[in-house]
Amino acid sequence: MQVGDRYGQLYGGDDPLTTRVGIDPTVRDLTVIPALDIAPPHWITTYPRTVNATASTVELVVQLDEPGVVYFLIVPDAARVPTSREVRAGITLRPDAVSYGSITSLRALTQEVAVVVPGLSAVTAYAVWFVAEDKAIDLMLSPKPNLQPAPVRSLVTTPAP
Ligand SMILES: [Ca+2]
Asked: pTM of the entire structure?
């Protein structure tokens, strides 16, 4: 074999034993471009839910299809529909919030998580708004979470004490 002659064909050709296609040995820089996560999380079917309302509490149950965090905002039933940003910001942007906060878990909500929220009044109709955000990062590995474009609502009316 002459120097430089048919090198690619001899050493980089198809592997007859495995039928795998060989890598051209002249390829020196194989840059893998990671796919950026630009999609917000989705709710697992039947989530989010509000259950077990008492005269002063309600239980929020959530689960996501990818690791993330859930923000909630509880306002009177008749209150203006919030944006996702308002739900995440809580009382800063929605002074009419009865309660608000975030829900996380060890497995980042990829398994069902339930939290009890106190501070409600008896015999009152509330709108519980949920919005989810993932834990995506950018190419510099800095957090660049994707927030759902719109929150979802669950209505709950507290019973008498
Ligand atoms: Ca995502």
From this structure: 0.79
